[in-house]
Specification:
heterodimer, A: eight-stranded mixed sheet, five-stranded antiparallel sheet, 14 helices, B: alpha/beta, four-stranded antiparallel sheet, 10 helices
Chain lengths: 402, 340
């Protein structure tokens, strides 16, 4: 047996050693979290830019598993400006959802921990670091100030409670002070109507299984928006839906955003949806941001080979290609990340420097940032500028005929 | 107006035309709703309610529609996988599938295969991959025992799997790899016709591209015919030669991919296509938003089933069900108001 151990094989002894070590780390972190009467000064902080609703600053979220430490989010920095939509794209397992769960502090503890970095939340008159906040204080923010639309409407609703009860619970828990039962119910009905459920009184009394996928997703949205949150995290809100329903839900989200001037962090792997919704786009790969910029930067001037590959691998209606581009290889093992660029093994545009350490962020313009060695020197950047000049025109041509 | 004739009597028997591998006419599948104390049939879910199309050898037909419109059931009924049909005809290579005895059916099975929707739940967790792929091959005695192992290696290689993975179990594979196993399982039997039931819906974009390319490669190599069921319209446009659009158990429009995507005639097709998000932030979309949701197939609206959500609805639409018409050669639509 010892001869041909498959990749990632762990002996029992090794596994026990890892879990012992993990327990040591996590219990220390947990102890720190569970202290009582944490002084406010410990988590008060200052926004770098008062126009931002959320700032992720060098966020590291690790999962301490028995097979080793998984660096799900490994140094992520980006901002969500007030009243704007930021789209986060990437393959499954790249850390999109974990980033959002870190903001909500809904990580699977004690294994999942924010080990480094800050998540600054702009509360208007002050700013807090969510990563250091005690649970009790956080409870006042979750649901009210920021809330989340979860991925799968099929599994995120409780099958044994009526829809009305589940939405009521959110309202009475977070926003229910001094509200009578009837008032809470009125608010629930109002929310259900807002998300476009025609038979709101009837749906109030229904169980989740009686609703279709699109309706359930609307209930999830109604729940998330019930307390007028300033920050909405939408984690693949339309992945499980049909295109027609998806169009309705996106329209709805856009309308609601304008109505209460919230910021949206929109997580998806559908580039079409991102193009439609987002003002800013963040592209993640294996726990790090490989490229970020405005939607136009990313869609018209993609710079990182991964972004370019992702765009080319999606068939687009009205654009005929014989063979789709597919990115060769697969995502590296999250437990054993290489010490060079994570994308190097799959990249077809490698340059000499790629053998070095993970590339740092390079600014292509004021808004457009990329982590890739191709743009480290002037020559590479100029070449890229030349090659992308033609893209906007062809894109315009396509837009016109759609 | 010679071409705009309604297609002839729906109950007339089909005449086999050798260029079509599959001919489906007025196919219906209703599922009974049991209720009451004696479990009597109290109603019927009309999952597939009159589907007519012909599929040419070596081509791909895409089947699109919202969830619950009967796409998957159509695929399964064609393969005789969900009991008896309710009505209609299915000719596979000129042979009515539902007339065959169990023994004859068994002999036909290897020729028509299916790739199931979700690669995470359609593979038995207790069988090693080699066994999953090879089980049916052995059952049908397709290759001599001595060549069996080499044959499985060859099939796995064709589908982009490493033959040494044969002894591993499905849980050791990623989603894309599992989908390749499902494809290998279907192709090991040398089929002529494969129903691909949402083969890429559960996969990431970059993996999707790999699987789509693989399916196209295999089609060229083995001259396969696909019925490609999907709700992702951009994928369907990429892979299909002809496209059928389903709504509530009916095929509302059917034609070549070019016709359907450039010149959609049915109001539902138009609405469906206008809802596709385009990866271009500047693209202006004139979107037709459909009100409400798909009606229950147990209690479909009278007349044209789409009239409750249609913006061109007239009195005639509410009363009289439209019939399939050929508007251009090979472009069929089921609508009274197609010229609006």
């Amino acid at each position: 047996m010892a001869k041909n151990k498959p990749e990632g094989y762990l002996s029992g002894r090794e596994s026990r050693r890892i879990s012992k070590e993990n327990r040591k780390i996590t219990s220390e972190l947990e102890k720190k979290r569970k202290r009582k009467n944490v002084p406010e000064s410990e988590y008060l902080t200052k926004m770098h830019d008062p126009n931002n609703a959320v700032e992720f600053d060098n966020l590291h979220t690790y999962f301490f598993t028995d097979a080793g430490t998984v660096k799900s989010v490994d140094g992520v920095t980006f901002d969500v400006p007030i009243g704007k939509t930021v789209g986060v794209v990437g393959e499954s397992g790249c850390g999109k959802s974990v980033t959002s769960l870190s903001l909500m502090q809904l990580l699977q503890r004690p294994q999942g921990q924010v080990v480094e970095g800050e998540i600054r939340l702009n509360l208007g008159d002050k700013a807090v670091n969510v990563a250091k906040m005690p649970d009790k204080e956080l409870q006042h923010l979750r649901g009210n100030f920021m809330s989340m639309i979860f991925q799968e409407p099929m599994t995120s609703l409780n099958p044994v409670f009526r829809i009305g009860d589940q939405v009521d619970e959110v309202i009475s828990l977070h926003d229910g002070e001094g509200k009578s039962e009837a008032e809470v119910k009125a608010r629930t009905i109002e929310m259900l109507e807002l998300v476009g459920i025609a038979n709101s009184e009837g749906v109030y009394k229904m169980y989740p299984h009686e609703l279709s996928g699109g309706m359930r997703q609307r209930v999830m949205i109604a729940m998330a928006l019930a307390c007028n949150p300033r920050i909405i995290i939408a984690d693949e809100p339309t992945t499980a839906l049909d295109v027609t329903i998806q169009a309705q839900v996106l329209d709805l989200l856009r309308g609601l955003k304008d109505k209460i001037n919230s910021s949206i962090m929109f997580i998806t792997h559908d580039l079409g949806v991102i193009a439609e919704m987002a003002d800013y786009v963040v592209v993640m790969y294996a726990g790090r941001i490989v490229e970020k910029g405005t939607a136009e930067d990313i869609f018209y001037h993609p710079a990182h080979p991964y972004t370019i590959g992702l765009m080319a691998s999606k068939p687009v209606v009205g654009k005929q290609v014989d063979k789709l581009y597919s990115i060769p290889g697969k995502v590296p093992n999250p437990i054993n990340m290489p010490n060079y660029c994570y994308f190097k093994d799959r990249c077809e545009m490698c340059v000499k420097q790629c053998n070095g350490v993970y590339p740092c962020e390079i600014s292509l313009s004021k808004t457009h940032k990329v982590s890739c060695y191709r743009y480290a020197d002037e020559a590479g950047r100029r070449e890229w500028e030349k090659s992308t000049e033609f893209i906007p025109d062809s894109e315009k041509g396509k837009g016109g005929n759609a | 107006m010679g071409k705009n004739q309604a297609v002839e009597d729906p109950n007339a028997p089909l005449v086999y035309d050798p260029q079509y591998i599959l001919m489906v006419k007025n196919l219906k599948k209703h599922f009974p709703i049991k209720g009451g104390m004696l479990a009597r049939t109290v109603g019927q879910v009309r999952a597939v309610d009159g589907v007519t199309f012909n599929l040419k050898r070596g081509t791909t037909m895409g089947l699109v529609g919202e969830s619950g419109c009967g796409k998957t059931t159509t695929g399964r009924v064609i393969l005789r996988l969900s009991g008896e049909k309710t009505d209609g005809q299915v000719l596979f290579n000129g042979q009515e599938v539902y007339d065959l005895s169990p023994k004859e059916m068994r002999a036909l099975r290897p020729k028509m295969q299916i790739i199931f929707q979700d690669p995470f739940s359609s593979l038995s967790p207790r069988l090693p991959v080699g066994e999953i792929i090879g089980e049916a091959v052995r059952e049908h005695n397709l290759v001599p025992k001595a060549e069996f192992n080499d044959y499985i290696d060859k099939v796995m290689d064709n589908c982009g799997l490493q033959p040494f993975h044969k002894d591993r179990y499905p849980h050791e594979f990623s989603g894309g790899q599992r989908q390749r196993i499902c494809i290998a399982r279907a192709l090991a039997l040398n089929p002529e016709f494969v129903v691909c039931d949402e083969p890429v819906s559960a996969l990431d974009v970059s993996i999707q591209a790999q699987i789509i390319n693989l399916l196209k490669e295999l089609q060229e190599k083995y001259k396969l015919t696909y019925l490609f069921i999907s709700h992702d319209l951009s994928v369907v446009e990429h892979i299909s030669d002809t496209v059928g659009v389903m709504y509530l158990g009916n095929l509302v429009e059917y034609g070549s991919t070019e016709d359907i995507f450039r010149n959609p005639l049915h109001p539902y097709t138009k609405a469906l296509f206008s809802a596709i998000p385009i990866p271009d932030p500047k693209a202006k979309m004139s979107r037709i938003v459909l009100e409400g949701s798909i009606p229950s197939p147990a209690n479909p609206p009278s007349g044209c089933k789409f009239h409750t959500r249609c913006q061109y609805c007239t009195e005639k639409c509410k009363k009289e069900a439209p019939v399939q018409r050929e508007i251009e050669p090979g472009h069929y639509v089921v609508c009274h108001q197609y010229d609006k």
